[in-house]
Amino acid sequence: PRAPLSRLAAKEAVDVSHSYTPSAKARHECVTQDQPLFGGNIANMEEYVQEVANAARQFQLQDRQVRHLVHLYGTKAQELFPLLRNHPVLREQICRHQPDLKAQLVYAMEQESAISLSDIFLRRTAIGWTRCHGRDCAAAAAFLGEHLGWTSARMEAELENFFQESEEACRMVCSPAKTSVTSEPETDDRDETGPECESDPQ
């Protein structure tokens, strides 16, 4: 299931709106916590992960990649399979730090109304919220420009805008001592996520 922070923000917005509702009869208690997120109606997560893993064997994905797709897309994970089947290059991992696949970038643009790298990395996936802030992934996303027919100038602008928005997003959720994302991350194989906004993974 995706976007728990967005769900929390929506709940808070509904709760605040109640104070502006003139009639108590028009007020309804927010029930978002009782509703499954889009693609999140899964009775048994482990069984479903295995189901998707069996269907994905033809693409030779790693176990952690399959699990990542299920946790990110839920029951919609297999919607990426046509991209993986028709474009083998999209089966490749974007960078060594994260399990995300190139197919996810194309899917975000074609199926999730993303129009920029910032949309993809900060609002369609969790790539921009990882310990390396998606910097290596963004650099490796040059193929996306070729796939979409972007000029080199457009690609440079997308990268610049993403780095700037990533810095601003980090500044909003991190302590002042941990807001910089300008230093180069150390190379490792971890895919830790979270709002710590540490520039260099320990």
Structure description:
This protein has 202 residues and is an all-alpha fold. The protein is built from nine helices and no strands. The chain is globular. Mean pLDDT is 79; it is low at 176-202.
Brief rundown of the structure:
This protein is mostly helical and about 200 residues long. It is built from nine helices and no strands. α2 packs across α3 and α6 packs parallel to α9 (about 150-175).
Using brief descriptors, characterize the structure shown.
9 helices, globular, single chain, 202 residues, 0% strand, mainly alpha
Structural class: mainly alpha
Topology order in helix (H) and strand (E) letters: HHHHHHHHH
Give the proportion of residues in helices.
Answer: 40-55%
Largest sheet: none
The gross shape turns out to be globular
What's the count of strands?
0
Rg measurement, Å: 19 Å
State the end-to-end distance.
Answer: 28 Å
Give the SSE layout.
Elements: H1 4-17, H2 45-55, H3 63-73, H4 81-86, H5 102-111, H6 117-124, H7 135-140, H8 142-148, H9 152-173
Helix pairs in contact: 2-3, 6-9
